[in-house]
Amino acid sequence: MKQLMPSITLVALSLVVLSQNSCAKAQGVYKVNLVAPKGKAIAAFAEGCFWCSPHIFDAVPGIDSAVAGYAGGHTVNPTYEEVCTETTGHAEAALIYYDPKVISYNELLDVFFTSHDPTTLDQQGPDKGSSYRSVIFYQTPQEKALANTAIAKYNASGMFKKRIVTEVTALSAFYRAEEYHQKYVQKNPNNRYIQGVSLPRFDRFKQTYKGKLKN
Minimal CA–CA distance to 113: which of 141, 139, 152? Predict the structure, then answer.
């Protein structure tokens, strides 16, 4: 029995470590209830870095909040580190809570197409990989139809030199990202990525978007 004790101890320690890792993985990442509050609606989009996109959507009237998270993949409760390996199938995404009496789904699609380049496959600016792909996540047949109509409209508009590669995919689950990713631009205005990528992207959006912005 004395010879077995080290093995038993190692097994016990391994179980403790696994338990701790599971807790660490779940901390701050959780599956969001996709039922909108009364009188409100939700929509989800992926358009590159989820530090940039929520900041852009937050600037539009009628949008109550924009949550950074993960969608479109197969891994449950994915961590940021896992998504960065490009093995989870998830894209960095934004879940939008909005007032449909103030802003329509079509207007959200206009924000989406004027705030990123939907013609670059698995890439947005300096960020490359499937987690940075362009996706419209729909919840109803009507949203799917509106998304496809918008793609056709923007393809025909001449706004982009290449064909749009945006995916139109059903929203089956959305995982809120770790808390430090939420409102990242506002919390980290002096970050080099924010200064060099996110804020210039926001400035381009403001010049391109024809709708109103919050003061």
Answer: 152
Report the mean per-residue pLDDT for the chain: 89
Confidence of residue 1 (pLDDT cuts 50, 70, 90): very low
Active site residue 49: yes
Q: Which listed residue (23, 49, 52, 84) is catalytic?
A: 49
Instruction: Provide the pLDDT confidence category of residue 65 given band limits of 50, 70 and 90.
Output: very high
Which secondary-structure segment (H or E) carries 167? strand 167-170
- Buried residues in 154-175 as b, exposed as e (16+ CB within 10 A): beeeeeeeeebebebbebebbb
| Average pLDDT, integer, range 127-154 | 98
Map out the domains of the chain as residue ranges.
Answer: 28-208
DSSP letters of 36-70? Answer: PPTT-EEEEEEES-TTHHHHHHTTSTTEEEEEEEE
Who contacts 100 (Cβ-Cβ below 8 Å, separation ≥6)? 40, 41
Of all residues in the chain, the percent with pLDDT exceeding 90 is: 86
28-208: CATH number: 3.30.1060.10
- The pair phi, psi for residue 123, each rounded to 5°, is -160, 145
Q: What are phi and psi of 36, to 5 degrees?
A: -75, 150
Alpha carbon distance 86, 69 (integer Å): 15
